[in-house]
Design a protein that fits this description.
Blueprint (H helix, E strand, L loop, with lengths): L1 H29 L3 H6 L6 H27 L10 H25 L8 H6 L9 H24 L39
């Protein structure tokens, strides 16, 4: 059962990052009205690109936090959230997108002349597809993991609790006592007459 929860967390991380990359591309294509771009210096100006990258990363942060919490939340106290496995899935998906982006970048000669700011900040530009997006996804999953751990602590324990008196050590009865202190229910040794 533990292996199943780990694999669910891992593959959920892979799917989360793939969903985030696709959603970021969709959001980047949507854009703002033309009047906003002209008043800020054009679509390829640094303030506009940085603002779009931060807005998309914030949207991915919220989506990753919700997705991650729904994946990681424990149903019982003994089921701890596997945040590291979900982060590993995100890392594998990010590496896959990075390799895909490197091949895509190499196959398009026009992309060699693209400015560095568009390659770093634009969610449509290979090879990084928006460098801030990975931080939004990782941050969202980290917050979801913290919330899932808090929920785990708040759940009732699934193991039986001991009575308060069982864990306390037995008081010393003194050297002249005939009662053994080995255990709580021992038989007194026979007295010699």
């Amino acid at each position: 059962m533990k292996a199943a929860r780990r694999s669910v967390a891992f593959f959920s991380g892979v799917l989360l990052y793939c969903f985030g990359a696709g959603a970021a591309m969709k959001y980047a294509n949507t854009g703002l009205p033309r009047q906003v771009y002209t008043s800020l210096g054009g679509r390829s100006s640094l303030p506009v690109m940085l603002g779009e990258a931060v807005a998309i990363a914030a949207l991915l942060f919220v989506a990753a936090a919700i997705w991650g919490y729904l994946t990681l939340r424990p149903q019982r106290r003994r089921h701890r959230p596997y945040v590291a496995w979900m982060m590993a899935g995100i890392g594998v998906a990010w590496a896959g997108w990075l390799i895909f982006g490197a091949f895509s970048f190499a196959l398009k000669p026009r992309s060699y002349s693209a400015p560095l700011q568009s390659m770093l900040l634009s969610s449509n530009a290979a090879p990084l597809f928006g460098a801030m997006n990975i931080f939004g996804v990782i941050g969202g999953v980290w917050v979801a993991g913290a919330l899932a751990k808090r929920r785990q602590v708040g759940l009732p324990t699934s193991r039986s609790r001991r009575r308060p008196g069982e864990d306390a050590p037995q008081a010393d009865a003194g050297a002249d006592s005939t009662v053994s202190t080995i255990g709580p229910h021992t038989i007194a040794p026979p007295s010699v007459h």
